[in-house]
């Protein structure tokens, strides 16, 4: 009974402080209550019983385990209780340290950001790299506008092709029902069908252009900008820990302060390495992005020009040759429609 009371009492405190020494954790009452509930709600070995008889046997066959005083069982019970207690305490310490580290880092970065915003803090500046980043953001905005206009052109041109298709069918029908105007309706129907066919070919080229621009803007450029955001966060953390180290270096040089300076120096070095690594990643990605952008846009602009020129010149052969040159395959009519099995 004494072991049980001591086991429950041991779970009432989680000895943690900022240095990892023994101490009470007053900031985490909810976690402490959860741990108490886990430990208290577990099975009490002193209250279980062993049934020596069969099912429905006499009451004399029940032997309370509390009356068993063997040394091996007492040692096993205390060992398992201590093991569970230590494991629970270890998890609590790990969670507390993680939250503490996150909170401290957030505080330092927020302080640095506010200081920079009001002009009281210094920041690390790479003028050449920041100029390249700004150029990329401006280029992305302009390419997004090109993508928006190209999509609008595709929608308008698609509607025109559908109208030409419907108009050609109407002319063909009237050609059969109006003998006196059969020839006139007939060649107008043929003209609209030819325009419709060429329009579908041009739509294939424009759709390929739109798809390639969309990949460049929303995947390739966005991936580089994501790395840039990581770099900017690392720069903010680096400046925050640099400012913290500079403030500590200006203070007194007693034993406690020297220990804090050593810890700050270690954190400064860690964040400096992270900042330099991400800076190198951004420079490499910007270089490859520029090369990829020139290569992609050279091909796509040539495709767009040749396809548009051939269509409005009425050169069907050149239009089809342009699609073959860029390996663009048109979908057969009705390919977008679901099959009769899918409609069921």
TrEMBL record:
Domain AH: 124-324
Positions of the UniProt region annotated as Disordered: 1-25, 66-86
One biological process term in Gene Ontology: regulation of Arp2/3 complex-mediated actin nucleation
InterPro entries tied to this protein: AH/BAR_dom_sf (IPR027267), AH_dom (IPR010504), Arfaptin_fam (IPR030798)
Biased composition annotated in UniProt, kind: Low complexity: 76-85
Keyword terms: Coiled coil, Golgi apparatus, Membrane, Phosphoprotein
Subcellular location, principal: Golgi
Cellular component, GO annotation: cytosol; Golgi membrane; trans-Golgi network membrane
Parts forming coiled coils: 261-292
Gene3D superfamilies: Arfaptin homology (AH) domain/BAR domain (1.20.1270.60)
Localisation per UniProt entry: Golgi apparatus membrane; Golgi apparatus, trans-Golgi network
Name under which the protein is recorded: ADP-ribosylation factor interacting protein 2b
Biological source species: Poecilia latipinna (sailfin molly)
